[in-house]
Amino acid sequence: MEPLLAADLAALSGLLTSTKDHADRFLNGIGERRVAAAGAPPVRAEGAPARGVGLEGALARFAGRWEAGVSGSAGPRYLGFVTGGATPAALAGDWLTAAYDQNGSSGGGSWAAQLEEETLGWLRELFGLGEAHQGAFVSGATASNTVGLAIAREWLGERLGVRVSQQGVAALGPVEVLSGSPHSSVGKALSVLGIGRGSLRRVPVLPGREAVDAAALEESLAALGGRPAIVVANAGTVNTVDFDDLAAIAALRERHPFWLHVDAAFGGFAGLSPAHAHLVRGLDLADSVCVDLHKWLNVPYDSAVQFTRRRDLQTAVFHNASPYLGEPTAAHPDFLHLTPENSRRLRALAAWFALTAYGVAGHAEIVVRTAHCAELLGAGLDAHPAFRLLAPVRLNVVCFTLADDPSRVPEFLDAVAAAGETYLTATVLDGVSAVRAAFSNWRTTPEDAARVLAALTAAVR
């Protein structure tokens, strides 16, 4: 064995303790760490190391060169994108995922697949989905949307008498994908799937909203003259967390043939809040559902789930035909026949630990508390003359701009990031340069919301 490998193996217990201590220092100080990295990164090293330095040396080298540039994105005042963190139980589950290093592709040799099935059942209950929905873990919302739309593509073929998984997407002819305010990952998925970004048709939204106008959607469907289509509905838009009327959209299937895919990347968690549960009424009626877990479930990156009522079509799309991988059974196909990846880490373990440790009630508290923090920040910004809210705070995102000159948003965000107290991301809403503050981290408290407000008001002066 290579001497450094042999030495690290012999000292493994102590080295794992050193790694744990390294993580301890980072996580215990994250509440006061700069939220955004400052300064320039180090000059990139030329070439791969010819000779290593062992794990202890690698930890020291990382601390000296790169750790200063690690953001506080796992902390309570990082409000960019929709970024959760990692609860203690989720972190433990993720560490053990790496330590156990199970291949989650099939049920052979370990109980990994059965643990994933159990966790998926818990999540299905968490999101109010019935037993007809079956799922799988994937890397994120983009992968989840891609899987859901791939199954929708196969359903279109079924309606038109072709097998897209065998004959290719060209056998479908023109495809119509209808949505009011689709996330950008939907266009990316359509590009990957060969359906094409150009097939996405934006349907008018309700006045002053990002939610689709159901009457306009029906008009668009009627104009197809009975040709099957795909409808992508939103359970939480990215800018203002607006929700389509899922039940009303699903009811349109009584008159028009379409596959209903719901992008509930983080809005699916609204069902855990009594004040917001009505927003996801009708989610169970969807043909496929996307939910991201490294957002509001606060498990480490990367983790998401997809659910569908048509696992048979899912298997037709993702079946990996090879004798050494085995044939998928109708009742319980191995996960490698359900997602794009053959090689799958056991992402379910972090979610299993999180749900076992804190239960539905614990995660509901996170949702309610962080949504309250968004309300507090929204109220503070609304009361300040320098800011203007661009939408009501519907759940966990505050969308606002600078009252005097929205074109100064990039300069303003640079100042906020430079101060290091918080981090927010830019967007554009109805042509107006804007800012998004997205709350989903399990550590965030009303005191953090107050600190964010103070940082924003200081940056705008």
TrEMBL record:
**What does the similarity note say?**
Belongs to the group II decarboxylase family.
UniProt keywords (A-Z) are:
Decarboxylase, Lyase, Pyridoxal phosphate
Query: Would I find Heme among this entry's keywords?
Result: no
- The protein's name is Pyridoxal-dependent decarboxylase
Q: Is the keyword Lyase in the record?
A: yes
Q: Which cofactor does it need?
A: pyridoxal 5'-phosphate
Q: Offer one Pfam family short name for this entry.
A: Pyridoxal_deC
Instruction: List the PANTHER family hit by this protein, alphabetically.
Output: GROUP II PYRIDOXAL-5-PHOSPHATE DECARBOXYLASE, MIP05841P
